[in-house]
What we know:
By secondary structure, this protein is mainly α.
Amino acid sequence: xxxxxxxxxxxxxxxxxxxxxxxxxxxxxxxxxxxxxxxxxxxxxxxxxxxxxxxxxxxxxxxxxxxxxxxxxxxxxxxxxxxxxxxxxxxxxxxxxxxxxxxxxxxxxxxxxxxxxxxxxxxxxxxxxxxxxxxxxxxxxxxxxxxxxxxxxxxxxxxxxxxxxxxxxxxxxxxxxxxxxxxxxxxxxxxxxxxxxxxxxxxxxxxxxxxxxxxxxxxxxxxxxxxxxxxxxxxxxxxxxxxxxxxxxxxxxxxxxxxxxxxxxxxxxxxxxxxxxxxxxxxxxxxxxxxxxxxxxxxxxxxxxxxxxxxxxxxxxxxxxxxxxxxxxxxxxxxxxxxxxxxxxxxxxxxxxxxxxxxxxxxxxxxxxxxxxxxxxxxxxxxxxxxxxxxxxxxxxxxxxxxxxxxxxxxxxxxxxxxxxxxxxxxxxx
Length: 430
């Protein structure tokens, strides 16, 4: 069967579309489990590795800034590749790039080469961007009423790898030491293997490509609608299209703003928590536990969050994100540095607030786009998310170096409140 005939069979058969949707979700879930493990390395020990190699806290936020900056460029590239060649090529390329970057970080740590570290962290960011963009693949063939749940299903399975990664810090560190590499390079060895596996899973099995099929279905539907449309109806439809385009534009702006704000707050506080803990006598194992719980809170509630977003709406869950992040910032600001329980609570709330914001914002973006422009728009939005994360990473180190972790956390709490006026503005703009 030719590629054209294969696409036509999916256009003609809703049953085949549903089967492909279910198959796509299984493949995305498998890749996300590996991708989560790769993502966790930079979060857990990136700041500690920078602190060790630079010899100062001022630059501890540099790794987070660099791999989020790298993820910005990668998000744009993955989005463009996906729009042109499909999700399979775009996502596989991004994950494999992330694996190559992780390998570079390992060699940088072994050679104590700061230039190589900086370059490698930029490339490593491709995995972070791809791990986020993979959440969109499940929505290409999802029904409008199940989009948030599709996003959440892809995200929740990221938890398995993302939680395992921080809790394997001591194990991977021991492996690194046994081969003569620095202890902190161990988690990046896990990241390299995980990202490469995620890329090859998508490259081999994500066929037929869900985005290509979704575009073909949308094109066929549009052609059918045009054939049925009478001249008088066409005139009415033209004005309706202007209203729809305006609503879509607002949806994209609000969805992007929600995700950007949640990313800045989350990355800023998360980045400096390991350094803050180290200053108060906590060991690497304790850091792994706190970050592991934080990452679990980022992804594990996704199944419930997706249902809530589909049931109660994108706006209400955006409000919930702002309130949760506010609580996270306040708890982190006033928690004693040597109190593990309070730090765990703060980072768990931080992850949960991010989860609410990401899923509600992502669903808003999917609602406001069509298969013809979806991947390109999603890539552009993820660039903004990555750049905001990079800013949060850089500024967090500077804020803590010149003031304190409490000031940083309070700043995040105040910033999270901006989510409320942003969502209120969307009601007036439509």
